[in-house]
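User: Show me an example of a complex going from sequences to structure tokens.

Assistant: Sure. Here are the input components:
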Amino acid sequence: QKEVEQNSGPLSVPEGAIASLNCTYSDRGSQSFFWYRQYSGKSPELIMFIYSNGDKEDGRFTAQLNKASQYVSLLIRDSQPSDSATYLCAVTNTGNQFYFGTGTSLTVIP
Amino acid sequence: DVKVTQSSRYLVKRTGEKVFLECVQDMDHENMFWYRQDPGLGLRLIYFSYDVKMKEKGDIPEGYSVSREKKERFSLILESASTNQTSMYLCASSLQWGRGREQYFGPGTRLTVT
């Protein structure tokens, strides 16, 4: 079983809609959770991180964490064509390693 | 802003050559990482280092070695490049302690081995 699982997509949403990206993880000891955005041919860039149950909002982005169900999600409100990218979920425990999902490809249709 | 730089954006090498990829970070991070990224396989950890001269194998260390002589610099070495090492190589760094410990990535090196 993979440490972190994501639906590879592709996920398509119309411009202005809410895009919902989901991620599940296997290690109940996981402590910190991250969302990265990666444009084609570029390196991942951090969008936000969360480590407490509940929601964390940053602009149009909201991360949601549910440790009991072992999932973390990212909502993108008012989606824009510039949000079209692959979104990577990452998880850490008390160690130094990150565990990345394989990413979900998002396309926002104008 | 955290800055992670990598020595080359694009590199073409021949089979059997020794290849050096260098990574430098300017945020005094303890941890540094080397990944490769291939379509459909996601990010795979090659090696990481949590201190100068310290290293730990990741998921796919075969055919690679690393060197960390200074805190800010982490080098990946392909001892004898092979065509199956054609990939995007990404370096990252992070703090060692604290709940965040987010990783910051360099721009990547696209290596082609012919």
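The lines above are the inputs; the final block is the predicted structure for all two components together. Residues 24 and 71 of chain A are 4 Å apart (CA to CA).
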